[in-house]
């Protein structure tokens, strides 16, 4: 008996198909239905668009294109690449440049060039997930447009435009 | 694994059924027995009428497997439209018909509260006794043998798998290990085409443990079970709980909080219904890249035609359940 062959279908910026909510007796907006490739296709590079929110916690969708600003955060964050080829560069930030309040939620932009020891870099492709350790500076770089999902908390840089990204009817 | 299995507590109320070889169980006012094809649940309604309910044995064991493995999970775990459990985190309700609009209205439902340890001991013993050696209730139907027939052996190793929970991130030193052939986690047949290369890491000397990334899709392609959210990365109480899905989610989940689904490949169709009555509300069709919230007022059950990768995203804050009870936490994730 020959083995059955399966094709795993992933999405990308250039090739994605959205599903949707088929309402029976409910408001489709309650499901906040969106698609990360659709969001990234209509975003500026490195806009941190919130597409999942549970109290203070968010999932953000980023269009990775060119070099991002340097960010830092008082808590860990994680980056999952959904499309493209993305480098993550890390700097062990000097205390003067870290977020002063250890309880502050969400990423902030590092003021000026990051100061501290270079920690190294990573090259991520689709399905790869990276730790963005707390109190480090990180920069994402991508030669061609890609899509990244960030696990983080809602912060100063989080952008909410639910009515634009979600199914409304 | 075997050590945990032999430690299963045997409830005092188990009795042997001579025809099919399976034990019968009783828990409060509920009785449970199985035959060659079915699990039968019996109870007495509030007005004293005897009531009964029958489920396919395979469906019953797949549901029971999740409820046991998840420690009763978050909120309501319904095995079908009639029978299920509701977790209160120190105690657990067992119910029949209590979240079925028609049965509730007819007054034929029963709901009883048990100490978590008591119901767990009965459920673990029932799962162990009713699962035959050729059936793995954690697998998709094409991957395992039949649940039917008379009692034949057991499958203790497969029903006592440890839940995999990363503390910070999979693959970090001292945290949950990556999966590999050597660790008994080969790539699933339906994910044979998923790339297995790990990300390139270029740490400077001294930063080897902090410059960290791993192949999440490769990790998931090696999942040995279906419909089993497991932690891979943690930010405070934000838990990424991805899982691989095939066939039908064996339970209907009525969460006591909002949760989110992010479909990472292939597709899943979700049936959403009113949590209290079972009235259909919506179907949510999710394809690769789609994100959707499950409002806290609905219960949901997913159908995955091909094994697919789903990110279940949970807020595990221990105070959240009390905020929901006090009305401080919304049932709808976001207003716009």
The whole-angstrom Rg of chain A is 18 Å
Sheet bearing the most strands of chain A, described? 8 strands, mixed
Structural class of chain B: alpha+beta
**Overall pLDDT of chain A:** 97
Supply the key terms.
heterodimer; A: 169 residues; mainly beta; 8-stranded mixed sheet; 12 strands; 6% helix; 48% strand; B: 336 residues; alpha+beta; 7-stranded antiparallel sheet; 5-stranded antiparallel sheet; 7 helices; 19 strands; disordered N terminus
Structural commentary:
- Helix content of chain A is 6%, strand content 48%.
- The N and C termini of chain A lie far apart (48 Å).
- Chain A is mostly beta strands and 169 residues long.
- The longest helix of chain A has 6 residues.
- In chain A, the strands form two sheets. In chain A, strands 3, 4, 6, 7, 9, 10, 11 and 12 form an eight-stranded mixed sheet that branches. In chain A, strands 5-8 form a two-stranded antiparallel sheet.
- Chain A is built from two helices and twelve strands; from the N terminus they run ββαββββββββββα.
- By secondary structure, chain B is of the alpha+beta class.
- Helices cover 16% and strands 34% of the residues of chain B.
- In chain B, the strands form three sheets. In chain B, strands 12, 13, 15, 16, 17, 18 and 19 form a seven-stranded antiparallel sheet that branches. Chain B has a five-stranded antiparallel sheet with strand order 1-2-3-4-5.
- In chain B, strand 2 and strand 3 form a beta hairpin.
- In chain B, helix 2 crosses helix 4.
- Chain B is globular.
């Amino acid at each position: 008996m020959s083995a059955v062959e399966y094709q795993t279908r992933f999405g990308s910026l250039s090739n994605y198909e959205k599903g949707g909510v088929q309402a029976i007796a409910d408001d489709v907006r309650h499901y906040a239905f969106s698609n990360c490739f659709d969001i990234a296709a209509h975003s500026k590079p490195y806009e941190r668009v919130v597409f999942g929110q549970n109290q203070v916690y968010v999932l953000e969708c980023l269009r990775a294109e060119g070099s991002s600003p340097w960010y830092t955060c008082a808590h860990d964050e994680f980056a999952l690449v959904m499309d493209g080829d993305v480098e993550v560069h890390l700097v062990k930030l000097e205390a003067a440049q870290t977020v002063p309040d250890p309880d502050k939620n969400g990423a902030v932009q590092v003021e000026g060039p990051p100061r501290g020891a270079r920690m190294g870099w990573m090259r991520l492709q689709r399905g790869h997930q990276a730790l963005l350790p707390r109190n480090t500076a990180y920069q994402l770089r991508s030669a061609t447009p890609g899509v990244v999902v960030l696990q983080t908390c809602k912060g100063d840089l989080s952008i909410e435009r639910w009515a634009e990204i979600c199914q409304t009817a | 694994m075997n050590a945990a299995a032999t430690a299963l507590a045997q409830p005092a109320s188990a009795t042997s059924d001579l025809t099919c070889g399976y034990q019968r169980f009783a828990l409060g006012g509920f009785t449970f027995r199985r035959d060659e094809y079915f699990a039968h649940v019996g109870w007495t309604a509030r007005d004293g009428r005897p009531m009964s309910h029958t489920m396919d044995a395979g469906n019953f064991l797949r549901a029971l497997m999740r409820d046991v493995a998840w420690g009763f999970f978050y909120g309501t775990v319904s095995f079908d439209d009639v029978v299920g459990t509701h977790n209160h985190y120190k105690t657990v309700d067992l119910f029949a018909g209590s979240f079925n609009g028609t049965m509730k209205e007819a007054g034929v439902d029963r709901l009883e509260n048990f100490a978590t340890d008591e119901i767990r001991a009965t459920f673990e013993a029932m799962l162990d006794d009713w699962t035959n050696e050729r059936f793995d209730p954690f697998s998709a139907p094409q991957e395992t043998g039949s649940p039917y027939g008379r009692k034949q052996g057991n499958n203790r190793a497969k029903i006592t798998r440890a839940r995999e929970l990363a503390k910070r991130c999979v693959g970090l030193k001292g945290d949950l290990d990556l999966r590999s052939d050597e660790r008994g986690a080969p790539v699933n047949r339906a994910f044979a085409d998923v790339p297995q290369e790990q990300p390139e890491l270029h740490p400077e000397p001294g930063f080897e443990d902090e410059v960290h990334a791993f192949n999440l899709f490769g990790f998931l392609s090696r999942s040995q079970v279906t419909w089993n959210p497991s932690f891979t990365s943690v930010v405070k109480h934000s838990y990424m709980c991805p899982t691989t899905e095939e066939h039908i989610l064996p339970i209907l989940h009525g969460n006591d909080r909002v949760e989110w689904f992010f479909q990472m490949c292939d597709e899943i169709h979700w049936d959403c219904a009113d949590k209290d009555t079972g009235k259909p509300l919506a179907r949510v069709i999710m394809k690769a890249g789609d994100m959707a919230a499950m409002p806290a007022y609905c219960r949901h059950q997913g159908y995955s035609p091909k094994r697919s990768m789903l990110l279940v995203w949970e807020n595990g804050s221990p105070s959240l359940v009390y905020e929901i009870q006090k009305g401080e936490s919304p049932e709808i994730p976001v207003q716009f």
